[in-house]
Write a structure and sequence with these properties.
Layout: H1 3-63, H2 71-99, H3 108-149, H4 164-195
Helix pairs in contact: 1-2, 1-4, 2-3, 3-4
Length: 199
């Protein structure tokens, strides 16, 4: 075999190996992306369910807007409506951003850096969500009482519910801590999946 033929054979073999490596890298990238997206689907499921519940509550409050006949009830209704719109929009947007990192256009290091930024933003939104949820709980109780029973919470019609507020806030605190820890763990697992790209 002459040197020219040997170089040609070597060149063909080298191209085949390079093509095989590209295909293998693409398959690995697709598997990592699938595992990553599946991990974040758990968060999306919970937040999506919460968003649907808030959307239904929003429709109920808006449908009954005429029953809020005092300034305090109107303020509570407006604050509740704003929070019922704000919470799902912020949360679902941050999940969408975290879930849609284009790994094919970034190297491993840039992907991890971008994910870390988006994860921090998502967790910050969750912390603000806890604060907004506490405010929401305080404003939605008078709104719900007026819609369900026609009673004005601020007029003292049903002040026997005052014991419920601290219990509800304590329950919210423990639930929020648990949910935040779960979300933090899920996003940490997603980051570990991305680290498989390094290998």
């Amino acid at each position: 075999m002459e040197l020219a033929e040997l170089q040609e054979t070597w060149s063909k073999l080298s191209r085949k190996i390079d093509n095989q490596r590209l295909i293998t890298d693409k398959i690995i990238m697709d598997v990592v992306k699938l595992k990553y997206n599946n991990k974040l689907k758990a968060i999306l499921k919970y937040e999506g369910t919460g968003s649907i519940v808030l959307f239904v509550a929003l429709i109920i409050v808006i449908w009954n807007i005429q029953v809020f006949d005092t300034v305090s009830l109107k303020i509570c209704a407006v604050i509740s409506i704003i929070i019922m719109v704000l919470l799902p929009v912020l949360s679902l947007t941050s999940i969408y951003r975290m879930n849609n990192i284009d790994m094919s256009k970034r190297n491993y290091k840039d992907t991890i850096i971008e994910f870390t930024k988006r994860r921090a933003h998502f967790l910050m939104i969750q912390k603000w969500g806890i604060v907004l949820s506490a405010i929401f709980m305080l404003t939605v109780i008078p709104v719900t009482l007026k819609i369900a029973k026609g009673k004005d919470f601020f007029a003292g019609d049903n002040n026997n519910l005052l014991w419920f507020i601290p219990i509800a806030l304590i329950a919210l605190f423990f639930f929020a801590r648990w949910a935040y820890a779960c979300y933090s763990k899920i996003t940490e697992d997603a980051r570990d999946i991305l680290r498989e790209l390094e290998e």
